[in-house]
């Protein structure tokens, strides 16, 4: 499975949107970068599906444009006008060449899902490799209305419980991709989140 970060050249704020190419070409999150659909078209003529980790604006702003360009299936936990397939905790979804387990991971967002296979984790914003707070093993912010650090901690624990030991590729909603011991990154993020200290000084 080849994974392309189609928002890599973004000049404004967006999530990382990933195009997984294989038996089933799938876009994980649509991002907020104008022209995402054009970048997808540079890699494939057909897009089978879009899979959403959650529906914050930086993850779905370009969803309409992508749907208009490719008419893909849209898989999501929460309702959305473009959703064609509802996903619940424990459901499976084909992404690229692999089958992924959908893990409900609220805390940063009530509708948040992470997707994990035998080798790969699309973590959305529940856990990231690096960001402005931590360089190795960070977690989604929980200081905005409707967010919960307690729920996030439980979500990371749930994710660890469902993650095979051999996962070595991590594609997060923000920060860099990571290839290596993904479990160690997630365990590090959990240890930091469990301290219940502000992630950013202004929280």
Radius of gyration computed on alpha carbons: 16 Å
Give a count of the beta strands, DSSP E runs of length 2 or more. 14
* Count of folded domains: 1
Number of helical regions:
5
Strand content: 15-25%
Name the helicity range.
10-25%
**The top level CATH class name:** Alpha Beta
CATH superfamily: Ribonuclease Z/Hydroxyacylglutathione hydrolase-like
Average pLDDT rating: 97
Give the biggest beta sheet: 6 strands, mixed
Element order: H for helix, E for strand:
EEEHEHHEEEEEEEEHEEH
CATH architecture annotation: 4-Layer Sandwich
The low-pLDDT segments are: none
Shape: globular
If you consult CATH, what is the topology? Answer: Metallo-beta-lactamase, Chain A
How do the strands of the widest beta sheet line up side by side? 1-2-3-4-5-6
The secondary-structure class comes to alpha/beta
State the end-to-end distance.
39 Å
Helices, strands, pairings?
Layout (H helix, E strand, L loop, with lengths): L1 E4 L12 E4 L4 E3 L7 H6 L7 E3 L5 H4 L2 H8 L2 E4 L8 E2 L5 E4 L2 E7 L8 E4 L3 E5 L2 E2 L9 E2 L9 H14 L6 E4 L5 E2 L2 H12 L10
InterPro entries: MBL_Glyoxalase_II, Metallo-B-lactamas, RibonucZ/Hydroxyglut_hydro
Protein name: MBL fold hydrolase
Keywords: Hydrolase, Metal-binding, Zinc
Q: Describe it for me?
A:
With 203 residues, the protein is α/β, with parallel strands linked by helices. Helices cover 22% and strands 25% of the residues. It has helices spanning 36-41, 57-60, 63-70, 149-162, 182-193, and strands spanning 2-5, 18-21, 26-28, 49-51, 73-76, 85-86, 92-95, 98-104, 113-116, 120-124, 127-128, 138-139, 169-172, 178-179. Strands 1-2-3-4-5-6 form a six-stranded mixed β-sheet, with no helix packed on it. Strands 7-8-9-10-13-14 form a six-stranded mixed β-sheet. A two-stranded antiparallel sheet has the order 11-12. Strand 3 (26-28), helix 1 (36-41) and strand 4 (49-51) form a beta-alpha-beta unit. Helix 4 (149-162) runs antiparallel to helix 5. The longest helix is centred in the last third of the chain and has 14 residues, at 149-162. It is globular.
């Amino acid at each position: 499975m080849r994974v392309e970060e189609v928002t890599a050249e973004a000049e404004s704020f967006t999530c990382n949107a990933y195009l997984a190419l294989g038996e089933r070409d799938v876009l994980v999150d649509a991002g907020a970068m104008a022209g995402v659909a054009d970048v997808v078209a540079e890699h494939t003529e057909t897009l089978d599906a879009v899979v959403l980790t959650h529906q914050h604006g930086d993850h779905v702003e370009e969803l309409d444009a992508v749907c208009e360009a490719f008419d893909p299936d849209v898989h999501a936990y929460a309702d959305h006008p473009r959703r064609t397939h509802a996903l619940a905790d424990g459901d499976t979804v084909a992404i690229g060449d692999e089958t992924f387990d959908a893990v409900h991971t609220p805390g940063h967002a009530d509708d948040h899902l992470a997707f994990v296979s035998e080798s790969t984790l699309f973590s959305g914003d529940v856990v990231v490799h690096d960001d402005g707070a931590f360089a190795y093993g960070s977690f989604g912010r929980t200081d905005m209305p409707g967010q919960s650090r307690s729920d996030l901690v439980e979500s990371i624990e749930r994710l660890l419980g469902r993650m095979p030991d051999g996962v070595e590729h991590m594609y997060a909603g923000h920060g860099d991709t990571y290839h290596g011991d993904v479990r160690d990154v997630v365990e590090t993020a959990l240890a930091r989140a469990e301290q219940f200290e502000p992630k950013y000084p202004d929280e």
